[in-house]
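Dear Dr. V.,

Thank you for agreeing to look over these. As mentioned in my earlier message, I'm a first-year student in the group and I'm still getting used to reading structure tokens, so any feedback on how I've presented them would be very welcome. I ran two proteins. I've put each sequence directly above its structure. The first is here:
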Amino acid sequence: MTAPLEGITVLEFTEIIAGPYGGMLLADMGADVIKVEPPWGEPWRFQESFIPSESRTFISLNRGKRSLPLDLTKPEAREIIYKLVPDTDVVVINARPDVPYNLGIDYETLSARNPRLIYCENTAYGRKGPQSYRPGYDLIVQALTGLMASEGKFVDGVPQQIVSTAVADFATGIAIAWGVCAGLYHRERTGKGQKVETSLMATALSVQSSRFIQVAAVDDERRSEFADELARHRERGTAYEEVYEQYLERFSSRRRWNVYYRTYQGKDGVLAIACLSDRLRKRVSDLLDLDDIRFKPDYDPDSDETAAFNGKLVKRAEALFLEKTVDEWLTLFDEAGVPAGPVRFAEELMDDEQVVANGGVVELEHSLAGKLKMVGPLLNMSETPLDPTVASPFLGEHSSEILAKLGYSPDDIQRLKDDGITA
């Protein structure tokens, strides 16, 4: 059986997270991904590197690729790209909109050499608008798209980023792979290549779809009122946490059902329950004997009685969860059909039976770092299985191989290395 993208060649001009992750997803599907980076290496190679030019972060985002370092500021390096493009199916690049033009690897230049090319360009904010010229990273996009403010984490009154993962970056990597696959499918039907545009901003808004929506009948007035309030708060310099409290009052219903969708401290650890329907909430209420007034016919969610009751209910539930171990609670919730699970660290899961059984871990051999385990493919396919077998490349690991295939002699290749054009 072949992989779904076997025979597809990708030129990847990316660094850090979003672009490399998108390219790795394509490599997992069987594409031949040639990673083009500067001869000195992309920045993520040096993010807490444990051997020269190799870091856990780089290795985690670049498996299955071949390395071709090139200094694209030099004409000879660009000429190598132009020789590769006619036999290339996909280009993935993440940079400011001006960078591809400055380096001669923009869509217009490359598609003129290969009209069937699928060219995926990722930027921070999109190619249009007053901020399009700016560089941007996950932290900044979390800030400007509302992700950070709505998270509700504060230090000294200042909202904090989501630190568990670079959510905009990784989600954009998935969007890159999705867009490329759609472009390839369209090309198979029409023979035409095209440009695919993704951005961190678009992705960060997309993952907030239930928040980033305005229904005129219910939202126009309250959003207008909040905008006026927000302007006054900013003019007065109101503390951000105070503004956030008012934001929750207007736009969040999380407090109303907080007792059924949260984490709890048990006798020996922490667990989470997640009940997003009245049917599931009632099961928890009955199991814990909470006598929740919200299930009574005359329940008024906006009454003072309800506000006072909610506070007492949370404290009662917290006290009850301390009486049993996490495993004891999970047994009870399994029997009741309530979604629940333990709070774990990612580092605990490398040998987890559930993760391993579903292909969540792969073992690879890195040319310099040796044996490693890492997260498996994002999806499973019955007819075209994804089976990563190659770790990330060391810097310049495949330069000679790729250049020789283009017709460069050993002496030519050595000269290119001596001149700093490749590594």
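The second protein is here, in the same arrangement:
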Amino acid sequence: MKIVILGGGPGGYEAALVAVELGADVTIVDRSGLGGACVLWDCVPSKTLLSTAEVVTWIEQAESLGLASEQPRIDVDLPRVFERVLWLAKAQSEDVQEKIERAGVRTVRGTGSFVDPHTVAVDGGDRISGDVFLIATGSAPRELDTAKPDGERILNSRHVYDLPAVPDELVVVGSGATGAEFAHAFNRLGSHVTLVSSRDRVLPGEDADAARVLEQVFERRGMTLVKNARASAVRRSADGVEVELQGGSIIRGSHALVTVGQEPNIGELGLENAGVRVGDRRQIPVDGVSRTNVGHIYAAGDVTGGIMLASTAAMQGRIAMWHALGQAVSPLRRDSIAATVFTDPEIATAGLSEQAAHERNLAIKVLSLPFATNARAKMVALEDGFVKIVASADSGTVLGGTIVAPHASDLILPVSVAVHSRLNVAQVAQAFSIYPSFGGSIQEAARRLMG
């Protein structure tokens, strides 16, 4: 079977590996470099920058651990930081390319566009036919008509890596995961950051208790939070930027970073020539096995307008290929997805949140355990964060969980496994954990819920 994949990000290249393993003839059409925006501009670069910012917190904690008598000075060489960030992104893309080539997948550089349901043209020229197609072209930063980025003072998330120095006063518009992560990073690197949220708290899509912890940490570190404030315009001034809020008030800064979501990349795909339906938010609707309204055309990742995560894109791509190639496969369970906001502390979640469970009128029991009671946390002077487990009140089945802590992205795995495998709190509590460890708090929370 001939499979053509448009887009070389996580949804595309993970799907290609599955399809090749099952004996398909696979071609990826990609215009930017394998790994996609996730590797080249978004996930890998931003998380590398956040790892650099994390060092500042380590240094600040040194004195409380008896390692310094006075606070050391930190000089940030931002071009050197970004040189490393972008080098790692390029190296990761090359690793993906090598892996794909070794597996026997062909790659074609360019933009693929449908000319009919079974054919795509690359940059309007060479044509590639296929039996099955997967659209995995990702997304790009959403732009506001009244806040057009110029790449110098008014930035989107891909412009930050061109900054010559740490901004003196950075106004971040948008308090979702991207906005919160960059606000944290530049705050740690020395900017005075003002974070503008249109809602009554930062991270409105996350667990409310987790968001409150992060707000307290942000304010303690000198960040200014402006809540219930929607930006109506961002413009350059003589020596910086002005962010105008609805109501007329102005926030001034040296730079503005606009993070107001992502838009699916569908503009050049020629979907009308293939008969693929597009949703009202310019997304490609799919069913549980990633299939569009056209039976042999699938879509995965950000372009579907769902949960915009690399891990979700990869799973959607794998599911698409398993289904297309006749394998037994279960539909994507959106209520089992795990995600992380890479601030400091990190906020990691798996499965249903407490709020989502209440909205579904589920009978639940919830236990939240602060890390202040954890022996390992005390050893590293960790005072912020908690473990929360949401379980069925009747069966004790783990429905979801939230962890707020450094490296919560690693700690969330046992909770994710419990949600995916429908384990109950007794099964989690009876597994071995290490003492002392952060993970021990997960087991203790499960044990307390057993009663």
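From my reading of the second output: The chain has a mean pLDDT of 95. Residues 2-141+263-332 form a domain with the FAD/NAD(P)-binding domain fold (CATH 3.50.50.60). Does that match how you would interpret it?

Kind regards,
E.
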